[in-house]
Specification:
Layout (H helix, E strand, L loop, with lengths): L1 H12 L2 E10 L5 E12 L3 E3 L1 H11 L2 H16 L7 E5 L2 H5 L3 H12 L6 E5 L2 H5 L1 H13 L3 E7 L6 H6 L4 E4 L1 H6 L4 H16 L3 E4 L5 H9 L4 E2 L8 E2 H9 L3
Bound molecules: guanosine-5'-monophosphate (2 copies), manganese (II) ion (MN) and sodium ion (NA).
């Protein structure tokens, strides 16, 4: 496969980079997290979105190596940020099922010297559906390292509120499809309210994804969300820009 060969070459030759999207604490208005988003500079295709190459990386098993590169790079970068800022890393279901995931995470933490409490892994519901018991074992292994776990894209998959009760998450990220509708659709607002209520009981952060307008920000804030991420504040930006932004104290 041509794409597979290109991905291998990118790994070997530094063709990947991480951009970071700020996450804003809604109570203090301070950036207290950044999500690492993988970018691939392809010589012919230009910037290729992870949505287009992660599936191929998963099929070919290359996701293991790419994922390890992402973890190491994100931890090393976050170690340069102010200590109140966490870094969030997306983990695909294939990576999550690897028995060595927690070892790889521990290695990335060790190597970078990053405080484990400053690393958050984002997983999707897909990892929970496949094998509940195994997922719980892995989640507990990861949490034993002291890192945080976020449930990403909540509301897009099977989305059972039971997942929130059964699994030990630190954060629920409410999918941007709900945020998009929240100012004009009362059922989106009701769903957010229900998630916020469960999350608050269990001390979880609730992040509204895809906040693009001031009105959306105010609405999710009134519904009790505690963090937001979206173009209203900033899209994903290169590491140097984020470093400067964080250093400037905003
Ligand atoms: O900006 P955006 O196009 O980055 O992201 C598209 C999709 O790719 C999102 O679903 C996001 O979670 C996923 N993604 C971004 N970076 C990574 C990564 O490092 N690893 C994995 N597995 N998925 C990622
Ligand atoms: O699946 P995940 O939530 O990890 O993916 C993050 C994706 O959401 C990335 O593709 C990122 O570029 C995109 N994104 C981030 N903020 C916004 C936003 O405010 N609006 C829209 N439409 N997309 C966003
Ligand atoms: Mn994500
Ligand atoms: Na998401």
């Amino acid at each position: 496969r041509e794409l597979e060969a290109d991905l291998r070459a990118a790994l070997a030759e530094g063709g990947f980079e991480l951009h970071y999207q700020p996450q804003v604490d809604l109570r203090s208005d301070v950036v207290n997290g950044c999500e690492a988003l993988l970018r691939w500079r392809h010589q012919v295709r230009g910037m290729v979105s992870p949505a287009d190459f992660v599936p191929v990386a998963e099929e070919t098993g290359l996701i293991e190596e790419i994922g390890q590169w992402v973890l190491r790079t994100a931890c090393a970068e976050a170690a340069t940020w102010p200590s109140h800022v966490r870094v969030a890393v997306n983990v695909s279901p294939i990576q999550f099922r690897s028995e060595t995931l927690s070892l790889k995470v521990a290695a990335a933490l060790n190597e970078s010297g990053l405080d484990p409490r400053r690393l958050e892994l984002e997983i999707t519901e897909a990892v929970l559906i496949a094998d509940d018991d195994a997922a719980l074992v892995t989640l507990n292994q990861l949490r034993a390292l002291g890192i945080h776990i976020a449930l990403d894209d909540f509301g897009t998959g099977y989305s059972s509120l039971q997942y929130l009760q059964r699994f030990p998450f630190d954060k629920i990220k409410i999918d941007r499809s709900f945020v998009k509708e929240v100012t004009r659709n009362s059922s989106s607002a009701s769903i957010i309210r229900a998630v916020v209520s469960i999350a608050a009981d269990r001390n979880m952060i609730t992040t509204a994804e895809g906040v693009e307008t001031l009105q959306q920000r105010e609405t999710v804030q009134n519904l009790g969300c505690t963090q937001m991420q979206g173009y209203l504040f900033s899209g994903a930006r290169p590491a140097q820009e984020i470093r400067a932004l964080l250093a400037s104290g905003k």
